[in-house]
Amino acid sequence: MSKKLVIKVTAGADSPERCSQAFTVAAVAVASGIEVSLWLTGESAWFALPGRAAAFELPHSAPLPDLIESIQAGGRITLCTQCAARRDITEKDVLEGVRIAGAQVFVQEAMADGTQALVY
Q1: Superfamily of domain 4-119
Q2: Which backbone phi and psi does 40 adopt, to 5 degrees?
Q3: 88-103 burial by CB neighbour count: b if 16+ within 10 A, else e?
Q4: Alpha carbon distance 114, 63 (integer Å)
């Protein structure tokens, strides 16, 4: 059975340490061979847009664009449907490879056999 990790990150620039922790854990999990699904919700939704991660800064942490690249290399990034709608973000606006999906898909992923879920 493969190992799976679903991470929901709700924090963005409003809580940089919590935000960075979620992206860091996701990138490390991908590098460790774990199947990762990172969900962007709340203020982290902005990081689905090109250029937004480059503006994020947190001393002593990996650059967010590098973490996103690492996650996308072996995992999946999903933007919450409602969070996207509240910010007028559409599929044509997001980074290549980012999908927009809703709570039903999140629950399916989080409840799959062999899956662990984390919320930041």
Answers
A1: DsrEFH-like (3.40.1260.10)
A2: -95, 120
A3: ebeeeebbeebebbee
A4: 30
Work out the number of other CB atoms within 10 angstroms of the CB of residue 46. 18
Q: pLDDT digits over 11-58, tens only?
A: 999 999 999 999 999 999 999 999 999 999 999 999 999 999 999 999
Query: CA–CA separation, 76 vs 66, rounded Å?
Result: 15
Is the distance from CB of 90 to CB of 98 less than 8 angstroms? no
Take residue 118 and report the two structure tokens written for it: 């984390």
Model pLDDT for residues 67-108, shown as the tens digit of each residue: 999 999 999 999 999 999 999 999 999 999 999 999 999 999
Task: Name the 3-class secondary structure at 94.
Answer: coil
Domain spans, the chain:
4-119
